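Morning, I've got a small favour to ask if you have a moment. I've been staring at a protein lately and its backbone has me curious. You're getting the sequence in one-letter code plus the fold written as tokens. I've dropped the whole record in just underneath, so have a look:
=====
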Amino acid sequence: MCTGTLNGSSDGEWIPANSLSWSDGAAYAAWAGLRPFTELEYEKAARGPSNVDQGIPNEFSWGSSEITQVRRMRNGGQNLEESIDRGNGLCNFGGIIKGPIREAGCIPSSTTERLQKGASYWGIMSLSGNVDKPVVTIGNKKGREFKGSHGTGVLSTDGNATNKDWPGYVIDAGEVFVADGSGFRGGDWNGTPPYSISERWGAAFGTEAKGDVTYGARFARTAP
């Protein structure tokens, strides 16, 4: 929601951006010196180190197959947006809430732990549900050609990323078409239920040039 007031309480700053295309996210990552992240990085972000999580059937990013649907909110879309519901694996899915919800502070409190927060091993929120997480796939040749290059802060004259190893590099008349080599993991606010960590439906789907209301973005940067 945009009220026209700078730094307003309901200006959309507090919730994840959605309706993003692959090229939207790639352009931001290139400008910010970041890069897309891969399927394998998604799984590590969700599970933690391999010696910590040995795997649970139908496991979500909070380390359990338990899940509780967020159905009721206070202060929707504002800086103090908060889930009224409580339970293990609180997650925004199923289309009850018509859009993404605030990640930091919406579900967690000073007394909740990973399972109640719906947080990953590293404390990362909403790796299951809320918005689709575009990733570089390992499921086809184009995805496996990804070298992990970072953005340089410079975009093309059309405002697109220029990293040749990234999915969606092929540009025709200023428009990036379906980004072969990309896909989605983790599910979204409208899915029933969200995907478990290991579920790869859509992992090599190829994200579309036009953003959908369920599409978000996640980025990474390789440590020196």
